[in-house]
Amino acid sequence: MKKTTISAAALLLSTTPIFAAGIERSTQSINILFEEGNYVETGLQVTNPEVSGRDLAIYGGRKTGNVADDFNVLTFGYKHQFSDQFSAALIIEHPYGADVEYPNVDTTSATKGSYMLGGTNANVESAMISVIGRYKFNENWAVHAGLRASKASGDIRLRGAAYSTLSGYRAKLADDTAVGWLAGASWERPDIAARVALTYYSDIDHEFDTQEFMGAVKVAQGSTDVTTPAMLALDFQTGVAQDTLVFGQIRRTYWSDFTVTPDFFGQYVPDGLVSLEDTNTYTLGVGRKFTEQWSGTVAFTYEPTGKDLVSPLAPTNGRKGVTVAGIYTMDKWKFTGGINYTRLGDAKAETGTPDAARADMKDNDAVSLGLRVGYRF
After folding, report:
1. DSSP code of 269?
2. CA-CA distance, 184 to 198, in Å (whole number)?
3. What is the mean pLDDT of the chain?
4. How far apart (Å, rounded) are the C-alpha atoms in residues 351 and 166?
5. What structural domains does the chain harbor?
6. How far is CA 76 from CA 119, 253, 325, in A?
């Protein structure tokens, strides 16, 4: 099994766009730890989502328009091999984000612009730096562990008839930085390119300074506790024929721990601005080395649907996706380009005021392009 094919599979998982719970934008992959020698890489992912629907017929059936803006994700990774047994990596990424906006009602049209949710928008930004070490006991067994520093902020506005007296509400969550950790173990058999790696990512507890407004009037100022979810990821790969590799990942994300409940808003909606379910995500793919320079991979991703009722700020439910990537190696350089198509599951947006569907979000999808450049030295 050629190592180029192995690297191709690892890169594919880390360039696949993520839409778990509607706000996750990277896999937080540790695959750079398994690169040979000293290695540095940078990547860019450009995603064009289409998420739209209609108010329920009883509310007029007006079209929401596309509520999800395009977004870009930059990543950087550096792995250093200190000895035959010990290596370490630095990873910079943007794991979570949201850029959702329901267009306002178009007064010149009888159907455009959601009457129930028009004007609602959310902007969430995050950045994470991870420092991870890996120690190999022998050719087969190794352990890895590290720290993760997360910085995040948010600005959320609620508008539309669905929010009743809370229409006009705004919450501004200032930048906050918090620290978590990860740990795991791996088993490898190099002669058949087999590897299994299990990694646990701890949750991270943020405490955001928060201002709450109704219209232009500040109604509360305090702090909001938000826990980004813990995860458990099982990555695997094995050679199945000369120059051919099967690989995949099973990942459990504990989104039920993630809630955003500012003090004033929580008095009226105890479930908070966002309330999510735990998710399981499955990826399975195959990689193939065609020549000394060219390799390719294809992978399928599946995330089962959960409850129909979802937050308008994350208005999708499950997903099915396919990613195709090509890898070109030239001396010490490696170039990876990929395209992903994801079918986003139908959902019913509800506001918790009361807990009832307001709009149907149907027939949605997203297309992503990814480019990653790596250099080995």
Report:
1. -
2. 5
3. 92
4. 10
5. 3-376 (2.40.160.60)
6. 35, 23, 19
